[in-house]
Amino acid sequence: METTPHVQLPLLYTQQAQKELTVNEALSRIDVLLNTGARSQHIQNPPVEPMIGDVYIVAKTAAGLWSNQDGKIAYFNQLWRFIIPREGMTMWVMDQDKLITFDGNEWIDTLQVEASPPPGPTTLSGLTDCAVVLPQSNQLLSYNGSKWSNIAIASIRPMLGQMVEVLAGTIDVPVIQGYPLLLSVPIPIQLTQIAVQTKAGTASCLIKVNGVDIGLTIGSTSSLSTYTLAVNLQVGDRLALGVSATTNCEGLSFQITSVRGI
């Protein structure tokens, strides 16, 4: 008998006799799955006097009429029938008052699925040139791969309906009269702070908007230099960071802070 691919609902075939049997079986399986409640998941032997409509998750090493049906959804309709669970199926277990989810191999607590960490790194190992803003405490934290640096941003505390954002990075090679950072502004923002620092040597930086120097030249050394400004940029404006560095300049780090409405 042909069945549907997911929960094996029986399908009718041409000129089938007693179609009601197939249809009723399909409806019974749908009723079980829509119910989404199982009496237990720890019973190894089927109940002696089950009620029509009873649903269980067959426990491991089950015996009797449930033998070799471990982990399947068992339901009683004149006799015991079984549904093979699919990954992501979730059911309520009545004798434990909790949700369980089938992960593709076994039934586990749904809360365990929700608490699982997302894929990807869970530590700061290998992370460099990262910056985050803590507006509540007026702090800009910068991580260089080994430690966090604290930069005060008291002048850019956001107001209600505003968000502080930071663009940070490092230019690893010496740059002589170049523009290593060119941006097209996607939303209206206000530039509020620029911080630069080198690992070695010296450099000077200037900011241009739409090709026009805004009159801010920043001297950068191994000590952090921070500048406060208030420059409004509109959608499509082009922001450029120009750099003039000595030949021994290494690792020019920059942090550009802006405020936008939300």
Describe the structure.
With 262 residues, the chain is mainly beta. It is 9% helix and 42% strand. The chain contains 2 helices and 18 strands. Strands 1-5-6-7 form a 4-stranded mixed beta sheet. A hairpin with a 4-residue loop joins strand 6 and strand 7. The longest helix has 17 residues, at 19-35. The relative contact order is 0.12. The model is unreliable at 152-156 (pLDDT under 50).
Estimated radius of gyration: 32 Å
Strand order, sheet with most strands: 1-5-6-7
Tell me roughly what share of residues is in helical segments.
Answer: under 10%
Please give the number of β-strands.
Answer: 18
Structural class comes to: mainly beta
Uncertain segments: 152-156
Can you summarize the main beta sheet?
4 strands, mixed
Give the CA-based shape.
elongated
Number of helical elements:
2
Q: Strand share of the residues? A: 35-45%
Distance between the termini: 58 Å
Mean pLDDT: 76
What is the chain-wise order of helices and strands? HEEEEEEEHEEEEEEEEEEE
